[in-house]
Amino acid sequence: MNKKLFALLIALMSLSLLGIMFVQGYWISNSYQTKEEQFTFNVQQTLFSVTKEIKNREIEDFYNVYSNYVDSLEVPDNVNFSELVYKTKNDRTNEVFVYTDGILEEDYKLSSSFLDMDFDSIQFKRLTNRKTTTRINPGIDGENPSESNEVSFKRLKDFERNQFENAYFNISSKAPLHKRVNGSEIENLITEELNERGVDSKFEYAVYSNNLATKVRSDNFQLDPESTYVVPLFKNDKEENGYQLYVNFSEKEKVVLNSILGMAVLSLIFTAVIILAYASALSQIFKQRQISQIKSDFINNMTHEFKTPIATINLALDSLKNPKVKDNKEFLQRYLKMIRDENRRMHAQVENVLRISKLEKNELDLPKERLKLHDIVNDALTHVELIVEDRGGYVASHLGALKSSVLANESHLTNVVVNILDNAIKYSEDAPKIDVYTENVKDYIILKIRDQGMGMSKITQKKIFEKFYREHTGDIHNVKGHGLGLAYVKRILDDHDAQVYVESEKGKGSTFIIKIHLIS
Questions:
Q1: Which has the minimum average pLDDT: 148-152, 245-249, 368-372?
Q2: SS3 content of the chain, % helix, strand, coil (to 5)
Q3: In the predicted model, what is the mean pLDDT of residues 427-436?
């Protein structure tokens, strides 16, 4: 699959998953807010109902006392009667109906002293409604008409109560709070109202008078702006009020959260399953791509690693054709040994390239042993010296380090040095001129490989150790390669806990520097 298309698909899938997570989070947040608003509404309705019930109970208690007292009095202080009369006639039967609707209003001025309340008297109105209906039938052959009367009486208690409530408020507001309401009544009413509305939460309450706490309160009440609700208590129609009922629900967040916890947990579980499935699928996709990449790496690396030994073998074979060499046993043995060594190196590369593929999966486990870095450098030089001589150049060693013992894998570390030397040869337009130096710095041995080739820019120096990276050379294509050699160098040295970096200037050559720990 095309890399850009693959990256686009991954980005879209990831974006979709993030969108699902955002929607789930938004839904949970919105549900919590809705439940919180519903909780607040239920609590407010509860408190309004409680305060109304307390007020009505107080009015009912005192109204019953006054009403019974009025019934024991014989003569009211003032009596007033008003009556409305109207009649209708049925044209079909010639019957005439006469209706009367009268209100008897009896005013009593009652003292509150009998209630142990040292207040002024209160006006109490008792109203009686009297209704009459008179039916007049027309006479037969001039006889007098007949009459029939229906009379009904009804006490207007609701009206009396309203009148009494307005009159009583002025004296009831002066009564001590503990005589008007008690804590057990408030607690029972709130509990009953909350149960009717399906709210199961602990609460604490307190009654305040003009924002000052009174003794009517629960033991553990604490004022909290986030979870305390307040409603006026003993409020009249004139909006006059001196008491407030505060109720604190300390478990508000817990109750609201529990109301959505089930669906929220299920939603999060399903989302987690989707995320795990997505991560697993993504992991499998990357593994498949990795396997495909390893196969490509095998081919590319094998091509790259075999180029130098093949070139050396070809040069040795060409030299063997020279008649002078055939008669010189010393040269003959040298070239035969070179061919045999390069052939053995090619055989070892098959295993090495397979190991390189494991680098992508961090499965490279290189066996290491105590080695002399100078021996590794000298061995690497033998692999390239014939190629360098063929191009009329030189490769010289200046091994100045007194200590060169390192913990390393001989085959891979040799390949590292050969790769750097091979690059120095390839990027030398003229005859390769390569110098190899070693020195000791504290607990390290520094290996420097310097060439006088093309050099590289600052940008290239930052990227040369990236896989498949090769510097753009315009229209010049005389340098072949796959951009794998230095990536291999970097990974092998990382495994050896070593450092590699380059110093270079365009047109003045490059110096590769390797820093490796010494062992005693």
A1: 148-152
A2: 50, 25, 25
A3: 92
Contact 203, 216 (CB under 8 A): no
% of the chain at pLDDT higher than 70: 69
For 496, residues 6+ apart whose C-beta sits below 8 A from its C-beta are 366, 368, 406, 407, 408, 409, 413, 516
d(CA 135, CA 340): 144
With 0.70 as the threshold, say if the pTM is over it: no
Closest CA to 301 of 357, 342, 347, 361: 357
CB 504 within 8 A of CB 510: yes
Do residues 372 and 414 make contact, with C-beta atoms less than 8 angstroms apart?
A: no
Counting Cβ atoms within 10 Å, is residue 164 exposed (0-12), middle (13-18) or buried (19+)? buried
Q: Encoding tokens for residue 226?
A: 């986030």
Q: Report the range of poorest mean pLDDT among 2-6, 195-199, 336-340.
A: 2-6
- d(Cα 228, Cα 204) in Å, to the nearest integer? 9
* Whole-angstrom distance, CA of residue 132 vs CA of residue 134: 7
State the Cα–Cα distance between residues 3 and 360, nearest whole angstrom.
17
Sheet containing strand 433-441, edge to edge, reads 394-399, 433-441, 444-451, 510-517, 499-504
Q: In degrees to the nearest 10, what's the CA dihedral of 322, 324, 327, 333?
A: -60
Residue 406 has pLDDT above 70, yes or no: yes
Radius of gyration for the alpha carbons in the chain, expressed in angstroms and rounded: 53
Contacts by 299-306, CB closer than 8 A, 24 or more apart:
300/482, 300/484, 301/353, 301/356, 301/357, 301/484, 301/488, 302/349, 302/350, 302/353, 303/482, 304/481, 304/482, 304/484, 304/485, 305/349, 305/352, 305/353, 305/415, 306/346, 306/349
Across 169-183, average pLDDT = 72
How far is it, in rounded angstroms, from Cα 256 to Cα 36?
Answer: 6
| Residue 100 token pair | 């009367």
**Residues facing 108 on adjacent strands:** 124
User: Distance between terminal CA atoms of the chain?
Assistant: 51
Amino acid at 415: N
- 247 DSSP β-pair partners: 205, 229
Tokens describing residue 52? 């109304």
Query: What is the enclosing helix (H) or strand (E) of 104?
Result: strand 95-110
Is 397 in contact with 377 (CB distance < 8 Å)?
Answer: yes
Interatomic CA distance for residues 373 and 447, integer angstroms: 9
Beta pairing partners, 233: 243
The C-alpha atoms of residue 258 and residue 243 are separated, in whole angstroms, by: 34
Q: What is the pLDDT of residue 469?
A: 62
Write out the DSSP string of 56-91: HHHHHHHHHHHHHHHHT-SS-SEEEEEEEEEEEEET
Measured over the CA atoms of residue 469, residue 475, residue 477 and residue 479, the dihedral's sign is negative
* Phi, psi (rounded to 5 degrees) for 445: -115, 130
Let me know: does 488 contact 471? Beta carbons within 8 Å: no
- At residue 392, φ and ψ (nearest 5 deg) are 80, 20
